[in-house]
Amino acid sequence: MPEQISKALVVVAHPDDPEFFCGGTIARWVREGVEVAYLICTRGDKGSNDPAMTSDRLAELREQEQRAAGHVLGVRQIRFLDYRDGELQPSLRLRGDIVREVRRFRPDVVITTDPTTRFARGIYPNHVDHRVVGDVTLDALFPAAGTRLYYPEHLVEGLEPHQVSEAYLAVTNEPDFWVDTTDFIDLKIAALACHASQIADMPALERRIREGVDPRFPSSDGRPRYAEGFRRIVIRR
């Protein structure tokens, strides 16, 4: 666990990203006393092939699912931006929206996605929204969020500059920091099960998760061990 962390903000593109990318870490940090909040940048309004589904209905459903999943992990603060799924751009507006939330919540660390991951594990194409959110979030953290003359309209809202200490990049091909999530694998799976609109076969997903033992962390007691890896970026020492 990072030293002197009391608040962590998770900035991702879609509902269900927190649980898939770092659900075990979130569960562990919450139970170790860290206050965790989510910023979800899109409403997830395109994640369905059901002919009867509409974007508005899906967005409402996915927000409900995300709040239920956050509740399982102990996350009480979840904010949604109103960008459309699959249409995120590295804009000044998006950066400002992320800066505003950083200045409002004032986290010690931020978890987001690694913008350099074009192919996850060198195989699977990484969603464009994941890359954009990671890229813009890092620009928001440095130098914008901690520098007074960026987004001066935030001062009118009563939001002072805030400098985050570290960022942890999920969905990375270059992890250098791991969180042992062995004791929290059941909570991660329970939170993922809340995203019923996105998971066609939950038993199969659970089986893949439970079989995904990290060989870098051998067990000393015969019990499977699990870990979530991140690329750690120091923003302020």
Question: Can you walk me through this structure?
Answer:
- The chain has a seven-stranded mixed β-sheet, with helices on both faces. Strands 5-6 form a two-stranded antiparallel sheet.
- The longest helix is centred in the N-terminal third of the chain and has 19 residues, at 55-73.
- The protein has a single domain (7-234), classed as 3-Layer(aba) Sandwich (Rossmann fold).
- A hairpin with a 3-residue loop joins strand 5 and strand 6.
- The protein is α/β, with parallel strands linked by helices and 237 residues long.
- It contains seven helices and nine strands.
- The protein is 37% helix and 20% strand.
- Helix 1 (17-31) packs across helix 6, helix 2 (55-73) runs antiparallel to helix 6 and helix 3 crosses helix 4.
- The model has no long low-confidence stretch (mean pLDDT 94).
- It has helices at 17-31, 55-73, 92-105, 128-144, 153-156, 185-192, 202-211; strands at 7-12, 35-42, 77-83, 109-113, 119-120, 124-125, 166-170, 177-180, 227-234.
- It is globular and about 55 Å long.
